[in-house]
Amino acid sequence: MDRSHSVCFECGSDDLVEDHGAGDLICRGCGMVLIEHMIDDAPEWNNYAEDDRQRGDQSRVGKGLDERLGLDVTLETYIVGPKSKASADGPPRAHHLSQTSQVVRRRAGFDALRDYCDALRVNNAVADYAITLFAKVDESEQFNVSRKLNKARVYAAVLYMACRDCGNTRSYKELEVITGVDKFKIGKMVTQITKANLVDRAGPAPRARTEDFLARFCSSLNLPNKTRIIASPIVEKATKMGIVEGRAPHAIAAGVIYIVAAFTNAKRSVEEVSEVTSVGASVVKEVAKLLNKSKKDLFADVQDIMVA
Fold it and tell me: Most confidently modeled of 22-31, 37-46, 79-88?
C-alpha cells in the first residue's frame, strides 16, 4: 500500500481496508473511499466453492491437463484455507498436489515421443497418435513400461506404428537410428502391441509399402520430379514380376531410386542413397543389381509415362 494512503486524509484513522471485489481502499473509521478501482497486481485465484462464505479452497486458473496422463487428481496449484484464526493472520499458503510415478513416467514418455517426432520430421498428428498409443500401452498390464529397457522399445514401437498408421511411414532402420533400439527388437515390440489389440481398427493393420517411401526419399535426395514419376511404375512392375521378392519396402525404394536417378541424369552415389534411406550401401547395390537384370522390361514404357 502506498504511504500516502496509510492513513485516512479525512479523519486521520489508520484502520483502512481493501475491497478487492470493487478495487477500493476504504477507511473503517469514517467510511471514506480513499482510492477507487485500485489495480491488484497479486496473483489471481478463483474460488470454485458453491458458496464463498464456506471458504472453500481456491485454485489458480491454468491450462487444462492432458487426460492421457491418467490423473485421478489435478496437478494445479491451490490455496489452502486457514484451519484456525491464528493461522489466518499470515498469507494463504500455496500447495501442489504430488505427481504419481505414473504421471512422471507418462510425462517423460510424451516429451520423448515429441522429440523423436521432431527428429523424424513428422507432423503433429503422428506425435498425438503416438502419445495416445503410448498411454494405452502404459495402462496395459502386459507391458512393464517402468523398466528402462522396455520403455525405449515401447517408444520406438509406438513411433513406428504412429508413422505407419498416419501415412508417414518410416522403416525399422530409421527408427533404430533415431532411438538407438535394435530394429529387430522394435519389430518384436510392434507385434506384441498389435496382438494386445490396443488400437481400434476395422481391419488388419496397414503394411508398409514401397510407394510410401519414394516421394520422401526423392525429396531428401533433391531429385527432379521426373525421377519420382518414373520410379513409381518401376516399383509396381518389379513387384509384379517378383524381381525384389523378400526385400524390405524401403530397401526396394532405395534400389529403384538409385537406378532411376542415373537414368534421368540425376545420379546419386550409393553412399548418398544409403545415408538418406538408412539402407546399407551393400543392400542398395544388391537390389539395383536385381533390377538391372530386367532393366529392359522395367523401362520399356518410360517414354509413355513421361508423355502422360
Answer: 22-31
